[in-house]
C-alpha cells in the first residue's frame, strides 16, 4: 500500500494518493485501517498509510551512507555490488565507468 499511495500516486497521477498521509508519528510507516479518509464514490472508510517524513529521511540517509561505504570498501565481498553499480550507472547515464576501480 505504501508503494501505491506514494510512488504510483506521484508517478501516475502527479500527487500522493488520498490514502497516503505525511504526519509526524512514532514509527516510520504506519497502516491505519480506518478513521482517516473515505472513498469519494461510496463514502466508506478507506485504509491509510501514514509516513513520518523525519524518521524516513533518517533511515534513507543511513541506508545511503551504508551503500556508499560498501561501494568504497575494497573487500572482495562487495565486488558484485560495485559491478552492478558500474553497469547501472553506464546504462543510465551513458558514461562508461566499467573499468573504474
Characterization of the model:
- The chain is an alpha+beta fold and 101 residues long.
- It has two domains: 2-51, no CATH class; 58-93, no CATH class.
- 47% of the residues lie in helices and 20% in strands.
- The protein is built from three helices and three strands.
- It has helices at 2-13, 53-72, 79-93; strands at 20-22, 29-38, 45-51.
- A three-stranded mixed sheet has the order 1-3-2.
Name the descriptors.
101 residues; elongated; alpha+beta; 3-stranded mixed beta sheet
Care to give the gist of this entry?
By secondary structure, the protein is of the alpha+beta class. It has 3 helices and 3 strands; from the N terminus they run H-E-E-E-H-H.
- Report strand %: 15-25%
Helix content: 40-55%
Order of helices and strands: HEEEHH
Briefly note the structural class of the backbone.
Answer: alpha+beta
What is the residue-mean pLDDT, rounded to a whole number? 86
Strand order of the largest sheet: 1-3-2
Low-confidence region ranges = none
Can you count the beta strands?
A: 3
Distance between the termini: 40 Å
Using only C-alpha atoms, the radius of gyration works out to 19 Å
Shape: elongated
- Assembly of the depicted chains: single chain
Number of domains: 2
Count of runs of 4 or more consecutive helical residues: 3
Largest sheet: 3 strands, mixed
Topology diagram in text:
Elements lengths: L1 H12 L6 E3 L6 E10 L6 E7 L1 H20 L6 H15 L8
Parallel strand pairs: 1-3
Antiparallel strand pairs: 2-3
Amino acid at each position: 500500500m505504501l508503494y501505491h499511495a506514494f510512488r504510483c500516486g506521484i508517478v501516475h497521477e502527479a500527487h500522493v494518493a488520498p490514502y497516503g498521509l505525511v504526519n509526524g508519528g512514532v514509527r516510520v510507516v504506519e497502516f491505519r485501517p480506518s478513521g482517516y479518509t473515505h472513498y469519494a464514490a461510496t463514502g466508506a472508510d478507506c485504509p491509510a498509510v501514514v509516513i513520518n517524513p523525519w524518521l524516513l529521511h533518517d533511515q534513507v540517509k543511513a541506508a545511503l551512507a551504508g551503500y556508499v561505504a560498501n561501494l568504497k570498501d575494497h573487500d572482495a565481498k562487495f565486488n558484485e555490488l560495485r559491478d552492478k553499480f558500474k553497469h547501472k550507472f553506464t546504462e543510465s547515464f551513458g558514461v562508461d565507468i566499467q573499468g573504474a576501480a
